Amino acid sequence: MATAQQLHPAQKNKINGWTNIKIPSKIITREESQLVVKQILAIILSSITYLRGLFPESSYRTYFLDGRAYKVLHEDVNFPGVNKIIEWVEGCFQAMERKYLRSAMFTIQSYSNQKNNTEAYMFYFDYPEEGNEMNLWSHSNQGYGMGITSEVKRSIPLLVEKLYQLYHKLSSLPDNVELSMKLFYYNDVTPDDYHPLGFQEWEVPRRLNLTPTT
């Protein structure tokens, strides 16, 4: 079972974990574990858009964790695409809270020299008894990939460093790109008619057209 993003505005339903980045030094409860995974997802996805120059500097806020600075998207009335990305991730949060979300795929697709170039970032989620876990895997048809497990905050610098290494090997994006996000569920626990915030049935996937900043 899978759903894809929808492009019309959805009901706003802020979920703790996006707008206030604060990861505890010690994770004790399942709720703390889930919050950490949410915030890591927010940081990593924001880092992907930042490093690829998809949105202007004004669309990000700087958060400091253990002396390191991270750029995290925040709502920007001047750039609706920013708000759409935030909406997609809040949909992920909603599905995570119900333990439905198995994986999420964020895709950047571009066309240059009559070639279709695709960057795909796969986030995998698991819900063991002691809390939540997330794995990240990425690839592009330019021939580079990475895989990493992210369970606690010490993994964040490693994840971001891996992203920097990846982008040194990727070409700059052309003037126009298309963004999409698809969610995949644990079918044995997810209702057939379940659609989290900002998503719809994955029959005719729609995309977000975007011109990256320079």
Q: What does this protein structure show overall?
A:
With 214 residues, the protein is an alpha+beta fold. Residues 4-17 have low confidence and may be disordered. The protein is globular, with a radius of gyration of 16 Å. Helices cover 25% and strands 33% of the residues. Helix 1 (30-51) packs antiparallel against helix 2 (80-97) and helix 1 runs parallel beside helix 3. It has helices at 30-51, 80-97, 155-167, and strands at residues 2-5, 60-65, 68-73, 101-112, 115-126, 133-140, 144-150, 177-185, 199-201, 208-210. Strands 1, 4, 5, 6, 7, 8, 9 and 10 form an eight-stranded antiparallel beta sheet that branches. The protein has three helices and ten strands; from the N terminus they run βαββαββββαβββ.
Low-confidence stretches: 4-17
Order of helices and strands: EHEEHEEEEHEEE
- Cα-to-Cα separation, first versus last residue: 37 Å
Characterize the main sheet: 8 strands, antiparallel
Number of helices: 3
Counting DSSP E segments of at least 2 residues, the number of strands comes to 10
Strand content: 25-35%
Kindly report the average pLDDT value.
76
Specify Rg, calculated over alpha carbons.
Answer: 16 Å
